[in-house]
Design brief:
The complex is a heterodimer of chains A (235) and B (111). Chain A has six helices and eight strands. Chain A is an alpha+beta fold and 235 residues long. The chains are: A alpha+beta (235), B mainly alpha (111).
Chain lengths: 235, 111
């Protein structure tokens, strides 16, 4: 018949193609199907932003260490100042705190979207979180965090496209809002009849309110920028 | 003969499954285009073999250059922000089906 050379080379190439195919199968399988297109871009973006953050943090470590040595050297003189500083830091959200309080968890509605229904009715919005946080503040909360983002005096809670930004970080449902303060006061303030939490529940969103004796609230870990503002010299 | 070809493919698949190598994520996309080109070359070779116009040099060189070119173009396309890999997918996909159709017709005529 035809040349045996041709047969042999077709067989050899088939062998090669088989190896390539199965290696490719195994690789795609081990990385999972969702890590192919969009996820990669997103992860690359996240990676670069995390790297930036890491660099900033390492610089901060250096400056903090310097400050620490300065403080240690003048220890006795500055005890009062340190106490004052700790209080200010706590108020500004610069140190992690813990204490009794409540945890409110909000999540999107488990119901499937009905034909003709508005998808916005099933989602937790920035406004919802904002109102809950406001209610917490009104009920005597001393420190608040949302998904481990500490709420400071300058923190925003804002809708940005499909996500919500807090301290310029994207957060995603479920939203865990922690507040330290008098647990009884907080609980009654939030679960008040006709209050906002009850309204959200009636919309079909998943809400949960838990009292806890020890709530850990992390520190604000972003940068403090005062580009335009300077303290006013009063004396 | 065709049983032997199929057998080789199965052995290749088996060897590939046993090999302890995994491709890095970055090249997975390009290698899959290369695999498509390689498949096209194999079917083209089988078709040429059936039409008695098989040329060993053309077959071997076509196999390697096609897969490398396809992967290279996909890579270039990604650098340029252009979905060039779609061109490779369409071209090789169409040719694959054409070759398969011709092989099928040949087999139908034969048996």
């Amino acid at each position: 018949m035809r040349s045996t050379n041709g047969k042999i080379s077709i067989m050899a190439i088939c062998l090669l193609v088989g190896i390539m195919l199965s290696v490719q199968f195994r690789t795609s399988e081990s990385y999972g199907p969702n890590l192919r297109d969009t996820r990669v871009d997103e992860l690359v973006l996240k990676n670069s932003s995390l790297n930036e953050e890491k660099n900033a943090l390492s610089q901060e470590v250096v400056s903090l260490r310097e400050k620490l040595t300065n403080v240690d050297s003048g220890n006795k003189l500055t005890t009062d100042l340190q106490e004052e500083l700790r209080k200010s830091n706590m108020a500004a959200g610069l140190i992690p705190v813990s204490g009794p309080g409540i945890i409110v968890t909000l999540d999107d509605s488990p119901r499937a979207l009905q034909p003709g229904g508005n998808p916005n009715d099933l989602l937790v919005h920035d406004e919802d979180i904002l109102k809950i946080v406001n209610e917490m503040k009104a009920s005597g909360a001393e420190a608040i965090s949302i998904n481990d983002e500490r709420i400071t005096a300058m923190s925003e809670i804002r809708c940005a496209g499909t996500t919500i930004l807090v301290n310029w970080n994207k957060i995603a449902p479920p939203f865990v809002i922690k507040a330290s303060g008098d647990p009884q006061l907080l609980e009654s303030g939030l679960s008040i009849r006709g209050g906002y939490l009850e309204q959200l529940k009636s919309f079909g969103l998943q809400t949960q309110l838990v009292r806890n004796d020890k709530i850990d609230i992390p520190a604000y870990n972003g940068a403090l920028k005062f580009q335009y503002t300077t303290p006013k010299q009063s004396n | 003969m065709w049983l032997m070809v199929l057998f080789c493919l199965v052995i290749g698949l088996f060897i590939g499954y046993q090999l302890p190598i995994l491709l890095p994520v970055a090249v997975v996309k390009y290698v899959s285009i290369g695999v498509l080109a390689a498949l096209d070359s194999v079917f083209g070779g089988i078709r040429a073999y059936m039409e008695d116009s098989f040329d060993n040099t053309i077959f071997i060189s076509g196999f390697f250059t096609n897969s490398l070119l396809a992967a290279g173009f996909a890579y270039l396309g990604d650098r340029l922000g252009l979905e060039l890999y779609l061109a490779a997918v369409v071209v090789f996909g169409v040719r694959l089906f054409q070759n398969l159709g011709i092989i099928r017709r040949y087999l139908l005529k034969k048996y």
